[in-house]
Request: fold
Amino acid sequence: MFNLHQVKIFQAVASAGGISRAAERLYLSQPAVSQHIRSLEKTLGVKLFDRGRRGVSLTLAGQVFLERTQHLLRMVHDATEATQAAAQGEDFQRMRLRIGATAGVGACLLPHWIRRFYDQYPHSTVNLHIAGTPELVHQLAGQALELAIVGDDFAEESVEVTPLWDEEVAIVTAPQHPWAAHAFIHAAELAGQPFVSREVGGLTHAWERHTLSHYGIQPRVIAEFNSPAAIKQAVIAGIGVAMLPCFTVRNEVLSGQLHIVRLYEGTIVRSLKLLWTENSLEAPGIDAFLRYLSAEFPSLGVRRVGDKRSDPLWRILKANDPA
Reply:
């Protein structure tokens, strides 16, 4: 009989599309992961993966096993939480949501949404997991999360991606910077400016470089950080200028700690996206959270799903659509 550890390794390999990538995510050796997969296939008496030069892909039997075990792991997680809650005298029937977000969204947007969600659903518990987009995709595919909100573009077939809205990204400076006297600058003026960037290798760093290259700018990066909070503090300290979503600097702009400038050439925007799986939408409470978001932001229901009438996310949001 297979065990839950083997199932989790199987799902990690399916999500990563390769043994080596899954091993890195699980902090296991590649031979150990391969051995677990071989043992699982031997126990089941079927081949779960087709091996190729570019990685692995699920067989039909593997696809069926993945779908069934996603339900299994969610049931195990729910049973564990309910049992622990009951042992501590808590309400084990509380609505429990597991939501992921990238750093800026998780720190600046979701706490406010969650607080207002609590006002409507006081018997709920929200577990917010902040991480990079690749880790959130991995967590979603493995049923460790029900939803995630990110701003990165990526290619991953293990989760569904639905655009939410376009968020403005601005150039931010310290109040003593010469640009603090201006509302707009020309893109060419960015050339040669000391620039504070996200870390090399991250999806946000790649987006920054791509966006700046559109204006013919090669930034003079003098510092790299892995969080918007650190970048804000670096700009406040006068280290350089940076590109940040407006929602992440709203408080600092209002308090006079930061100044934002826009480009004459046009507004820089980045699309926020909702990540989900069909299985995750079956989790208790997710429909309530999606309907709350749709009611709080009426335009989201239309912009998320368009005319995909068979889309399960569309069906949930349609229930709250006055049209």
Summary: The longest strand covers residues 160-173. Residues 301-310 have pLDDT under 50 and may be disordered. The longest helix spans residues 60-87. The CA atoms of residues 63 and 186 lie 52 Å apart.
